[in-house]
Amino acid sequence: MERATERGTRRGAERRAEIVRSALEVIAERGYRGTTLAAVAERVGLTQQGLLHYFPTKNSLLIAVLEERDQWDTGSARRDGGNVWPLDLLTSLVEYNAMRPGIVQTFSALLGESVTDDHPARGFFTQRYEKVRADMAATLRGEFGDRLPGGLTPEAAAPLVVAVMDGLQFQWLHDRDAVDMPALFRAFVSLLGQGDETARG
After folding, report:
1. What is the pTM of this model?
2. Would you give the end-to-end CA distance of the chain in angstroms?
3. For 77-91, 97-111, 137-151, which range has the lowest pLDDT when averaged over its residues?
4. Are 90 and 164 in contact, with CB atoms under 8 Å apart?
5. How far is CA 192 from the centre of its chain?
6. Which DSSP state fits 146?
7. Pairwise CA distance, residues 190 & 184, whole Å
8. How does pLDDT run across 1-44, given as a tens digit for each residue?
């Protein structure tokens, strides 16, 4: 029989997950600065005081939203729990993102807002990009060795891959009919395997 404490813990986790999902929706609609705890609480059917029981500050809720989004991506793209994101699975991740515009919109809105010095997500994105670039360099080294066909090192090419992924998302959000995000990323990946024959090891 499930103990009362276990049942309470499970219900608490389910409620936190529900709050995070609702916060994603509200942030996608209003942006972070336009989002209030009261609006999220209303969306999830709680009082603001009830929401504060789970997330005592707006910043703590924001970080939970960002971490949850990254957990979804990690589960979709990483292989064997390692740090390498194989290029074929990265392509699958881009295809997956194309099926969840609300999540992509929330992430992109927060990313854009976070460039200001006082934004609470600035530290999160700075650390995230540092790790993503390192992971991407490991991916490229696993695929191509110490030099890509075009002559770039994995470390030099890694920020370019990240820039293409995030840049495509912004363009896709503005015009989904004109920008086929998965197809364009597949085309970019194919370019990574091409280059001057003299640069091939």
Report:
1. 0.73
2. 63
3. 77-91
4. no
5. 22
6. T
7. 10
8. 556 566 667 888 899 999 998 998 888 788 777 889 999 999 99
